[in-house]
Design goal:
This protein has 3 domains: 102 residues, Rossmann fold, CATH 3.40.50.720; 33 residues, Double Stranded RNA Binding Domain (2-Layer Sandwich), CATH 3.30.160; 53 residues. Helices cover 44% and strands 18% of the residues. The protein contains 7 helices and 7 strands, in the order βαβαββαβββαααα. β6 and β7 form a beta hairpin. α5 packs antiparallel against α6. The chain binds ligand SHN and 1,4-dihydronicotinamide adenine dinucleotide. The site of 1,4-dihydronicotinamide adenine dinucleotide has 22 residues, from β1, α1 and β2. It catalyses: precorrin-2 + NAD(+) = sirohydrochlorin + NADH + 2 H(+).
Length: 207
């Protein structure tokens, strides 16, 4: 079965990472960009986590010790990223029992959510999954998508977001409004940039 791409608000939510090695660090970097709070528990924690504590002030905590069962209590999601299969399995089993979202880095059977390969341009986010069949394929497809994204798309997205309440207020009729959003977007796409006030007025007059 393929996996459903929920887009989840993880800001200020607590994520437990069991393990403090390279892969744990990569997963921590991924979720911190979306505002999550990260708790790392491991006997050995790689030094990059000290840099993360500085970069994301107050969002990263490390506990230098072995995992205990109660560490998973009240976590929004958990990442099992140790190099010990038995520990990863145990973490996963506890989470499955408690209905906590868990990603396990060494066995997809022990996951109930997966990390996609991610393209992020501001709030535009694309996630690629191969269903766990080939992370390399996911990575390579991600690179292609990254290269296909026009330069100003992030700027255009911010502008369209700011414009949205104005258009909603100006155009009551739903069909017309839909057409306006379509037209404005096409014009931005063609221009490769946001519209000037005159261009916007003209687009709205044409409706
Ligand atoms: C199931 C999943 C669970 C999860 O981690 O969420 C998982 C599992 C495993 N990965 C393994 C290996 C590698 N993973 C990568 C890379 C990425 N792995 C990612 C996701 C996922 N990896 C989930 C499935 C996603 C999907 O494909 O749908 C990406 C997309 C996102 C991320 O990790 O952030 C990220 C690309 C980031 C980017 O865009 O650059 C590379 C290549 C590289 O490092 O560049 C290699 C080495 C090559 C190889 O072995 O294929 C191993 C074997 C470990 C071993 O042999 O010991 C397992 C275990 C297993 O297969 O069961
Ligand atoms: N999902 C993915 O994308 C990938 C997953 N992997 C898998 O990830 C695993 C971890 O890789 P690395 O981070 O490179 O390993 P690493 O050797 O750098 O780190 C292992 C970490 O696990 C911790 N640990 C061991 N026992 C523990 C316990 N009882 N409680 C808490 N922490 C404990 C160690 O202290 C250390 O911090 C590998 O075994 C491999 O199977 C590898 C490549 C990609």
């Amino acid at each position: 079965m393929s996996y459903f791409p929920f887009f989840v608000d993880i800001s200020d939510r607590e994520c437990l990472i069991v393990g403090g090695g390279k892969i744990a660090y990569r997963k921590a970097c991924a979720v911190l960009k979306y505002g999550a709070k990260v708790l790392v528990v491991a006997p050995e924690i790689c030094e990059e986590f000290e840099l993360l504590k500085k970069e994301y002030t107050g969002a990263v905590k490390t506990w230098q010790r072995e995992f205990t069962d109660s560490d998973t209590d009240n976590r929004f999601f958990v990442i099992a990223a140790t190099d010990d299969e038995k520990i990863n399995k145990k973490v996963s089993e506890i989470c499955f029992k408690k209905n906590i979202l868990v990603n396990t880095v060494d066995r997809k059977e022990y996951c109930n959510f997966y990390f996609p390969s991610i393209v992020k341009k501001g709030d535009i986010v694309v996630g690629v999954s191969s269903g766990g069949k080939s992370p390399v394929l996911a990575r390579e497809l991600r690179k292609k998508i990254e290269n296909a994204i026009p330069e100003n798309l992030e700027k255009v997205n911010v502008w369209l977001g700011d414009l949205r309440p104005y258009i909603k207020e100006q155009i009551q009729e739903e069909e017309k409004r839909k057409e306006a959003f379509e037209n404005i977007y096409r014009m931005c796409e063609k221009k490769g940039d946001i519209l000037t006030e005159e261009e916007l007025d003209k687009a709205l007059e044409e409706l």
